[in-house]
Sequence to fold (87 residues):
Amino acid sequence: MTNQLPVRRQVPFTDYIEEAVRRAVIECEPDGCTAIAPDLVGCITFGDTPAEALENLRDAVEAWVLTAIRFGDPVPALGDLELAYTA
Fold:
């Protein structure tokens, strides 16, 4: 019996960002909403509405990924998707 690693599909930057945002967890309180990208440690934003929090998260995910690449940190796979890039 062999252990096979899951097959991952490499996707461009924009597709990776959209998938990370699609997986967002949004929680609202009376004073506003937070949006979290659970696959990207520490990637969390705030907005007055769920839509604003989600739009802010899109910007935060882009910055998170670019920062990881810049400093040589791993960019995690999102399920079966991984970011296609070369260091």
